[in-house]
Write a structure and sequence with these properties.
single chain, globular, about 120 residues
């Protein structure tokens, strides 16, 4: 997707969801800004906000985070995520979208070695 992404994660041990999400958003925004600066991308200027607590805003404030409390809800969300680029017109089949986990689930593609199947 050109302006957002979906992520399903499992928080391990005793970590708090809020802390994991905060650290993930902070780390990824720092890495995104680093790449934009290195490549001298004009996009970096679109992210300037000069707010009291930050100079740039990469992610939306209060990103949506929901609990996936059942296998049924989990698979509904996975299907939604896989169909998202199809509905956006970025591909005909979900497994054809390069940045999707659909090919991992449908054909065992291991291009993204960090993916773990939700069924174990």
């Amino acid at each position: 997707m050109d302006n957002h992404f979906h992520l399903i994660w499992q928080i391990m041990n005793e970590h708090a969801r809020e802390a994991v999400q905060r650290d993930f958003l902070r780390y990824t925004s720092q890495q995104i800004l680093k790449v934009l600066r290195t490549e001298e991308s004009p996009i970096q200027y679109d992210l300037v906000v000069n707010a009291r607590d930050r100079k740039h805003q990469v992610w939306e404030r209060n990103s949506l985070s929901i609990s996936l409390w059942s296998s049924k809800v989990l698979w509904e969300k996975i299907d939604y995520i896989h169909q998202n680029p199809v509905k956006a017109g970025l591909c005909k089949y979900s497994e054809d979208y390069y940045y999707s986990s659909a090919s991992f689930y449908y054909s065992g593609d291991r291009r993204w070695d960090f993916l773990v199947h939700v069924d174990g």
